[in-house]
Amino acid sequence: MKKSFMLLGLLLISFAAKAHRFNLNMTYSEGIGYGYKNCSKAQEKEIYNAEKTAAIKLNKIIRNWPLASLAEVRHDYVIKEKRVWKKADPEVKVYMSYWQEMGETFEEMRDKFHEVTFECKSQREKRCQNNEVFAYVLFYFNYAKPVIHICPAFYGKSQESQAGTLLHELSHYSSSTEDIALDWINGKDVDLKRASKDAYHIENFANEDVTQVLKRMVWNSVWPKGKKH
Ligand SMILES: [Zn+2]
What we know:
By secondary structure, the protein is of the alpha/beta class. It has seven helices and six strands; from the N terminus they run αβαααβββββααα. The structure holds zinc ion. Zinc ion binds next to helix 5.
C-alpha cells in the first residue's frame, strides 16, 4: 500500500515537471513559470502574456544560435562583407568560448523557467525604488532565489520590454548572471569573456534577431572592416 502510494507520488511529480517544461511544440495553454504570489487576476494575466512572449523569444534564440557558430559567421559575415580574418587570431578562440557559453546560458534559462514564481509587489516596496525598477530577484550569497518580484512599474510597458525584463531576471536565477552592464549597445566596451554572466547582455537578445544583435555588438569588433588600399 505504502509502496504504491509512493510510486503514484513519484509519477505525479514527474508528470508535473514535464507539463511545465516548455518546448518548441508547446501550445501555450498554461503558465510558463511555476505560479504567482500576491497578484491580482489582471496582474497575473499581464505577467502570463509577458512570460509567453519571453518563452517564444528564448526558443527562437536557441533555435537560431547555431547560425552564430564560427563556421557560419565566417561564411555569412566575414567572407561576405570582406572582413579581416586571421586564423590564429586569439579573438577567434575567445569568440568560440563566447558562443559556447552563451548557448549554455540560454538553455539553462529555458530549462529553469518553470521553477520561477512571480511575486507581485506593491507601491510601498522599497526595492521598487519609486517606479524606477520593473522587477528584481533576491540573492542568497551568490545565488538568486527562484522568485521574480514584479514592481508596479512593470505593468503597461510594451510586451517586448516586459519580455526583456523577464529574461534578464530569469538569467540571474538560472545562470547566476550579474548586472555588469557594459556598453553592449554601441559595442564600445564589451567583454566576451564575461558576456554570458551579464544579465544586460542576455536582455539585449529579447528585442531583435540573434544575428542583428551579434552583428552590432560582437562581430563588428571581433572582425573589423579591412583597411582600404
Ligand atoms: Zn539585474
